[in-house]
Structures are given as structure tokens and as C-alpha cells.
Amino acid sequence: MTDVRQTPHADSAFIRACRGQDVPHVPVWFMRQAGRSLPEYREIRGTGTILNAIAQPALATEITLQPVRRYGVDAAILYSDIMTPVHAIGFGVDIEPGVGPVVERPFGSRADLDRLRPLEPDVDTPYVIETVRNLVAELTVPLIGFAGAPFTVASYLIEGRPSRTYGRTKAMMLGEPALWHELLDRLADMAIASLLDQVANGARAIQLFDSWAGALSPDVYEDLVMPHSAKVFAGVAHTGVPRIHFGVGTGELLTLMGDAGADVVGVDWRVPLDVARTRVPGKAVQGNLDPAVCLAPWEVVAERTRDVLRRNAGRPGHIFNLGHGVLPELDPGVLKAVVDLVHEEGLRHGGAEEADG
Amino acid sequence: MTDVRQTPHADSAFIRACRGQDVPHVPVWFMRQAGRSLPEYREIRGTGTILNAIAQPALATEITLQPVRRYGVDAAILYSDIMTPVHAIGFGVDIEPGVGPVVERPFGSRADLDRLRPLEPDVDTPYVIETVRNLVAELTVPLIGFAGAPFTVASYLIEGRPSRTYGRTKAMMLGEPALWHELLDRLADMAIASLLDQVANGARAIQLFDSWAGALSPDVYEDLVMPHSAKVFAGVAHTGVPRIHFGVGTGELLTLMGDAGADVVGVDWRVPLDVARTRVPGKAVQGNLDPAVCLAPWEVVAERTRDVLRRNAGRPGHIFNLGHGVLPELDPGVLKAVVDLVHEEGLRHGGAEEADG
Q: In terms of pTM, does the model score above 0.90?
């Protein structure tokens, strides 16, 4: 680990980049850096679903720490799931290996609102508190807390399992807007409760995962989704921690996602980072290497990594990341090399953009 | 049926719109208008996979005609599949119900190129010829022929089944570009052979389905995919039929997809149609109602349909369509009502955009 990451977190490269401040090096972390791609994870993970593992603080702590040790990334992200709160209040959610979140009785009508009581983190997710506290005691880099955005969580509750079309979700949001808004309002409250709890216990930044918002047209997003995500960001604003807003395929939504109250906007690989910058003026950006690129030979990975750095051109307010989660089949050695490359070359790619590559 | 659709095809609303000419009404058809959403389809479809049905000209003809009769759409699209050519030459492809294309031995190395011999439509897909001829004899609207674009077909051949990440595909295109280009060149030749055959037998327009190109970043698309799609468009240019280029989630690629040689660019619902217009100046556009919207109550469907029309604002060169295929659970009555609304109001939504809604 470098000296920089041993300074207090407010002066860490990650937090400074979130705030658009100058950094000693370009900070980097990876979505799903913990988990299936790591042999040390597969060794300790045991049986049961991810929700079982999350409920064991010692295990969740170790899983969170593994990629920090291995990669020397600039931030840790809590090993948890966007479905943890709705699972914890007993909505009947599970995570099926190889499938994703499945819901025994999907949300279908007003009566189902009664199944969504408020989250009480002390009572419902004490294991999250314990894991966060463990981590804060151990980590020398900032811990990112997170929550699922109301739309993405709602889409799982309504569809009952991962969907490609979001047919039921869209039918409800457009056909029963009053019910939809009540559902999303409750999910926003749950996200706020969970995030505030994570921050109170030591998380130094938060990320709101609206992973599937890119399935929506901009006007539908603006009318029926953005107000609820904005409520979440407003609800944690007083903590002062940087707020990251993430989704996939959100090229047309980036401006709105920034305006929802984010300090940092996640950008997948579909929008070149220099183009993305023009859509979120004044915001920091996080991304944007295609995770699938990391399956190619190293020279290709290095060139694509440098391309991201060149497009940022040394500007403040860039956190290097993948555009989506690490693929399970990835060789962890590649990610380690990406971290080293970003740390070594990140700030060199300003100005003479072509000459550097 | 209206008089207009009984005029020769060159003067049909659909062909005129493809060419950016004035139209008597806004033409409309739906991707996957034939198929599972129609009770008359489920009645005659029988058992076996879609590839079995495609190989029976009488059945494929009837399935193609069903939505034309029911909806009064302005174009028919051949009932076939983008995997028909690679299946026909014996690559070992099947279409698994509820899954999609699956490949017994996926494409993984140079040796697999030998399994991709050129398509000889007379020998390999005589049933397609017969179906096209049947249709041309019966139809009073233009028939759209189609092919899978080299990238999208390659992604199925390499992944072996539908993928969310395209990890193997991207690893090959970036890691083994010489092999990738040879593969795509062969698939481009197969697409050209199939399309020329369909046009020679009476198809009046063609659509190239690069359904999953939206998974790529623009520079990867431009270097490794676009040249091969451009070859397909160039290969059919001498026929003079309008060429439509379609993909999902392609907001950042629209300009390139137009520049590849398309006369018409498909636009899904993620990009508002007025914004899409600015990305493909001089081209016609096709779209862009979210198919999932059609699961909402009629007033919502009507309002979203009018929104598409308003955004086009009466300009020539618009073919109304969904942004992707009809969902199987759709009520066909809704699509019939959309057709009627587009036909009746389509041209009224120019100029006074707000007053019309």
C-alpha cells in the first residue's frame, strides 16, 4: 500500500476525486471487486446464498477486505446486496445462484404495500452494522456504503426475477402511477435508512445502484423514477459524504442522474468518458472500462485502460472503475495490473493525449 | 385495407417513408408482429422449434400474413430468424423455446472457420425462396426481407447461447482481431447472399438486425463491427431496395449505424425520436415506442404513441414501429388500435406540437 492511502480519508485520493479536488494519483476500485472472481473468496464462501454470507459479519468483513489486500484499490465496498433491506423486512426475497434476485410472491397490487414496512437497521440488519464497524476498524481506505435505487429494487419486486423487458414494471409505473409512487417512496425511505445507518457507522461515501434505469426512456425516468432517487440523495445530504449514482446503459439519462443530487455519476463503457463529461458538467465521473475487455490479452486491457485515462485527460474528479461489475470468470491478476497502471500512469495522460498512448 | 396499400409498392407509404418522401399517412409495422402474441399463430404453429416452422413454406407464409390481415400494417416481414443461414449450412444451431439461439459447439478458434461455408440459398434455404414467392403473390403491402448482422450472429456463435455480457465475444474481437475479421467477413457474405436472394424473389426492403450492437463502445463498434455491416449494405446497394439498420440500446452508435450505409435507422425508446433525428441527419428513422408500454392501459399507450408522433412533428422519413419486438404477453387489440391511431393522426402531429396531444 502507498503512503497516500494511509492519510485520513478526507484526504484520500478516492474522497478527493469524488469532490473534484486534485489527487496524488487517479483512484480506482471495481464494482464487485469482492466475490466470485477471487480464489480466496471461493475458499471461504461456504454454501448458502449470498444473503446468508452477508448475515455473517466476520465472513462479510473478510470478503470485503480480500480485494483491498489483493489489488490495493483506493476504496472498499461493503459486501452486501441491493436486496438486503427488502429481504430483511421479510418480503420473501432470495438470491438464486446463477439467476439473481427472485421473489416468492411478487409485488402486484396495493395490498402488497403492507408487506413493505419501514426498515429499522438496528433490528433488521444488525449484521450490516457489525460488518461496517469491523471494516472501519481495519481499513486504511474509505468504505463505500450502498443501496439499491427505488426503481431497480422495485423492478425485482414486481418482476419476481431478473427481466430483460421489465414489462410488468413498466405496465405498473405507467398504468398505476399512484401505486407506483407509493411503492417507490417506501423503497426510497428504506434506502435512506440503510444508507444513514452505514454512514453513521463509518461508511465514507455512498453509491446508489440504479443498475437497470437504462431500460427507461428519459421522460419516463424523469417523471416516475428520478424524484425518488433524488429523495434518497437529499435524505443523506446532511451527512456530507460523497454520493455516487450508478446505472448501466444510461447514456441518455446521465444529465438527469447527476441532477438527481449525485456528486459522482457512474458511466458505463457505451459512452466515451470525454463525451460523458459533457453530459454531467461540474460532476465527478466514475468508470468506464468494459468489464468484458478484461478477458482480452493484457496489451489490449492496458490500451483500453489508457484510453479511458486519455479521455479524462488528467482532469480532477475521475474515479477509475469498470462500467459494470467484475465478471466471475476474470483472472484477478489482470485487475491488479489495471490498478497498478492507473496508479502509475493515471495523471500522465493529460495534455498530449496522443503521444502518451 | 386502405386504397393506399393497394398501389404499387414503390408508391406505398412504407417505401416512400424509407426514401424520405411525402406519405399519405405515417406507415407502421411491428418487429415480431408475427408470432406468439397472436392466438391464430398459436393455433397453427404446432410443435417443434421456430426453425422447423420456418422450413415449412405454407406455414411460414400464413404466419407472415396473419398480422398483416389482423393489424392492417404497412409492411410484412418474412417469418424467419437471424440464425436461419448458419443453421442451414449445418453449424449446429437451434432455437430453444424460452431461451433463444443455442449452439452445440460454439465458435472458439480458427478451426471453426471451416464449419462456416458460404451460403447457397438455392440449395440451403429453398424454403425461404418459396415462402418469399408465396408472400409476394399474396401481399398488397411490401415484404421486408432481413438478415442478422455479422456481430449479432457472431455473438451467438461464440457465446453458444444468449449472453448479458458478451465476454467471450469481446475477448475474441479484441484479442484475436484477425480471426474476428475473418469470421465477420464470412457472416457478412452469408447475410449478403441471403438478402440478395430474398430481394431477387420479391422482398421490397431489407432490415439488418444488429440487435446487440448496443453492448459495444463506439470505437470498438467502429473498428471491429461497422466495416462488416457496411459490407452487407454495400453488397445489396445495387438492388435499390431501402436498407434498414436496427439495434437496441444504440443511442451512442446511431450516427455510425447510419453511416454504415443504411437508408433508415432503427431507434429504440431510450432515445427520444427528435433527439435521434439529430444523430442521423438525412436518414429516415424507424421506431420508437417501448414495447412494454403496450402492456399499460390504452390511454397510456395512446399518449405514448402520440408522443412519438409529436417528436417526429410530421417530418417525412418516419416509419412508426416499436423500439424492439412485440412482447409475447401483449394483447393484439392494443397493436390494432396503435395502427389505427398512427394512420389517423400520424400526420396531424406536425407544427402545433403541444396543442395536438
A: yes
